[in-house]
Design goal:
Number of domains: 1
Helix content: over 70%
Structural class: mainly alpha
Strand content: under 5%
Radius of gyration: 18 Å
CATH architecture: Up-down Bundle
Oligomer: single chain
Shape: globular
Largest sheet: none
Order of helices and strands: HHHHHHHHHHHHHHHH
Length: about 300
């Protein structure tokens, strides 16, 4: 097994270890929090380099399905979950709103393939949510949670636009001039993204370390709530569109539960309270465990079918 295959297989464990290491050694890794946005930009560029737009346009022919999924799972569901979890605690509601509305993670097409889901369908959701995020995400956060947070929607819109459209432009230039090199190294892009994301998580965990140590009870309650959120999203993802078929439902479950967590945590650190950032960090645990569970379930189903 090659190095990038090992990293891709055990990415969840690697992410959790990075969070633990950043928490235990904040003095060492805190400087990394200052380069988070730049590292995210590189990760997103790598993701755009390997996206198959031909595959996307084939899937998008049935545009009403991805559009319905987008409206329900990225606009209506986050708002509904916000009001539901706000009954538990207001800051948890705000964190759930941010997480549920955050664009689908860039590595989810690969995760969908591993779990037995429909990769093309997930790819369509990745592209739709990525390119619309600079517009819908700040507006949704402002409209739904604006009464409880001081959010500059235009500032967030500008930050997200830079984070999405600059990497996209860079990827187009690289595709034009070094396409051969991109094709040759494409199998390792996912693993490289994982390793870059480790730097992001180390900095983020170090940034939240002091707050977690000072509030252990809050941290544990947030961890429990994050598992509840993951379970709710998984159930709604798999059973929300029962007519889609097993593969698409598995893919949708991955897409709904594995949002762009690094982006969510970065936005929480920049625009929200420490409680919101802490909850987003805690969601890393169930968020990275779920693909492993879904992979086992997908394999089990395939064996039953055989």
């Amino acid at each position: 097994m090659r190095w990038h295959e090992v990293i891709s297989k055990f990415f969840g464990i690697i992410f959790l270890l990075a969070l633990v290491l950043g928490f235990l050694l904040p003095g060492v890794f805190l400087p990394l929090s200052g380069i988070t946005m730049y590292v995210l930009g590189v990760i997103i560029t790598l993701s755009f380099l390997t996206l198959d737009y031909g595959e996307f346009f084939k899937t998008i022919k049935q545009f009403y399905i991805p559009l319905a999924v987008f409206v329900i799972y990225k606009l209506l569901l986050p708002a509904g979950l916000y009001f539901l979890f706000s009954l538990w605690q207001r800051n948890i509601g705000l964190a759930v709103l941010l997480l549920a509305a955050t664009p689908v993670g860039m590595i989810t097409p690969a995760l969908a393939q591993i779990t037995g889901g429909d990769r093309s369908f997930v790819l369509a959701l990745v592209i739709i949510t990525a390119f619309t995020a600079p517009f819908y995400l700040p507006l949704l956060l402002q409209l739904v949670g604006g009464a409880y947070i001081e959010l500059n929607a235009l500032s967030m819109m500008f930050s997200l636009s830079k984070l999405i459209f600059i990497p996209f432009a860079v990827s187009l230039v690289l595709r034009r001039f070094v396409s051969g090199f991109i094709k040759k190294t494409a199998p390792a892009h996912g693993a490289l993204s994982v390793m870059l994301l480790v730097f992001v998580l180390l900095g983020i965990a170090a940034q939240g370390s002091a707050y977690i140590r000072e509030n252990p009870a809050v941290s544990l309650s947030f961890l429990g709530a994050s598992f509840v959120l993951a379970a709710v999203l998984a159930v709604l993802g798999y059973f929300g569109f029962r007519f889609l078929g097993r593969e698409r439902r598995l893919g949708l479950t991955v897409a709904v539960t594995y949002m762009n967590l690094a982006l969510a945590i970065t936005l929480a650190a920049k625009y929200f309270t420490p409680d919101v950032m802490l909850f987003c960090i805690m969601y890393e645990v169930p968020g990275n465990l779920l693909p492993v569970v879904l992979r086992r379930l997908g394999r089990g189903k395939r064996k039953q079918m055989l």
